[in-house]
Amino acid sequence: MGRGSGDARSSLTRMPSQGAIIAVLALAGLSSSFMFTLVVPIQAKLPELLNASREDTAWVVTATLLAAAVMTPIAGRLGDMYGKRRIVLVLLATLVLGSLIAAVSPGIVGVVIGRTLQGAVTGVVPLGISILRDVLHQDRVGSAIALISATMGVGGALGMPLSALITEYSDWHALFWVSAGLGAIVFALVLLIVPVSVLRTAGRFDYLGAAGLAVGLTGILLAVSRGNEWGWTSPVVLACGIGGAIVLLAWGWYELRIEAPLLDLRVAARRPVLLTNLASVAMGFALFTSNVAYPQILELPPPAGFGLSLLAASLIIAPSGLVMMLLSPVSGRLSLTIGPKALFLLGASALIAAYGFTLLFSSEVWHLLVANLLIGVGIGFGFASMPMLIMRSVPQSETGASNGLNALFRSLGTSTAAAVIGAVLASMSVAQDGVQVPTAEAFRWAYLLGGGGAVAALVIALFIPRHHAPEERHPSLPEPPR
Fold first, then answer.
1. What is the value of pTM for the model shown?
2. End-to-end CA distance of the chain
3. Residue 246 CB partners (closer than 8 Å, separation 6+)
4. In the Cβ-directed half-sphere of 52, how many Cα atoms lie within 13 Å?
5. CA 71 to CA 358: how far, in whole Å?
6. Which residue from 68, 124, 260, 384 has the fewest beta carbons nearer than 10 Å?
7. Minimal CA–CA distance to 33: which of 173, 146, 157?
8. Are the C-beta atoms of 412 and 283 separated by less than 8 Å?
């Protein structure tokens, strides 16, 4: 049961303009997704910059991924219990702290610690979606949620050329000073503009459940993200993967037997929620396949690629983020007219079209630009529909945790894509000017796998129920189209 529901709605009427709230939460979402592409321009140079082995510097990326996956569902639950705005502020403060640590660190240890703290900020996206559900008029909920959801792709796409520009004209530490300043600005805006959360869930926080989820997810994600480097059949990878799975099974058994679990798995097991989360894994895989394959072929020297600079390549990728942002109001209106399930199917179809186009046409730079625009359409529609599919199927007290769980499933898809596509491109390579580069066949397989992920997302989404019983529909969301 929620507390304060009688006075909650009246207090929500005394707040800043809804447009300002949406803008600030969208900026928070952009800032969080920017963290994933922040170090892309310097990734290849990290061993030299940090005086460490390539295996050690891989933790600069892996640590952010792990922190994001673990903290997102936990932050959602904390937001439901202690106030979503409060937890958003905590996460933004963590981003600033992590950025400062990385900015002043000359070596690998400080940078990895800083990047770990930066990864935790990913939880602001599902929390922001839940805040919008709490404070907006129902006529604006759909388009606002679409905008916040799109920031998970927009920030990465637009952040890449910004990172490239910073590193081209400044020292690499400037990346972290910029992220610290950005985090501080967003913290101040949230503090001043976003209203205090008054819709909360009673109960005690499940610390043991949080620890179990963290250990289990860390094991599985380590196996997935580092399997290509450590060897998929190596004892370390097998121990991480199998051990993580065992811990998650024990965690699930425990969560089903306590009074106030971290995540209500009975709600998560509802058919619409479960199928939406499974479709999210496949869509996350399809999205990140393009993030791995397209930049590489754009940057590789001829004849393997097009020989573009990092900045030029990122400018080919960036329009997909602009498409996602421009589509957000359209996504909200479409969700009201055709329903979020149909919107998801449109998104998956656009991704299938993108990879199909690339398989047929990839000999010119403009071919990849067209494909990236289709990727933007697919992710813009797909990501916008996911939280609406989730929130119309969970109780009011579970929105933060349920959206956090959905974001986790998307992270599982992107993590798997990074490992699988990376392994495919590495295993099918030839020597070119003394350097191993992927073959044309390797890229074709990457496009096939990305398209396969989009097809899987579409097929799974076909089985998501279109209608829900009134008691399952979220009270702030409009009736689904008949």
1. 0.79
2. 30
3. none
4. 19
5. 35
6. 260
7. 157
8. no
Residues 6+ apart with CB under 8 A from 249: none
Amino acid at 479: E
SS3 264: coil
Separation CA 389–CA 335 (nearest Å): 10
Residue with tokens 């303009």: 17
426 neighbors 228 (Cβ within 8 angstroms) = yes
d(CA 201, CA 262): 12
**Rg, Å, the chain Cα set:** 21
Contacts of 414 (CB under 8 A, 6+ apart): 284, 285, 287, 288, 291
User: Cβ distance 267 to 402 under 8 Å?
Assistant: yes
Q: How many beta carbons lie within 10 A of that of residue 202, not counting itself? A: 10
Q: Please, are residues 145 and 53 in contact by the beta-carbon 8 Å criterion?
A: no
- Reference 290, options 319, 329, 311; nearest CA is 319
Asked if 465 and 274 touch (Cβ cutoff 8 Å), the reply is no
Q: Identify the bridge partners of residue 2 per DSSP, sorted by sequence position.
A: 201
Residue 400 token pair: 């933060």
Please report which confidence band the pLDDT of residue 470 belongs to, taking 50, 70 and 90 as the band edges.
Answer: very low
User: Contact, 294 vs 317, CB < 8 A?
Assistant: yes
pLDDT in tens, 237-275: 999 999 999 999 999 999 888 888 887 788 888 888 899
Cβ atoms of 104 and 158 closer than 8 Å: no
Measure the CA–CA gap between 448 and 450, rounded to whole angstroms. 5
pLDDT digits (tens, 9 = 90+) for 222-234: 888 778 778 888 9
* 200 φ/ψ sector (left φ>0, alpha ψ -120 to 50, else beta): beta
CA distance 196 to 204: 21
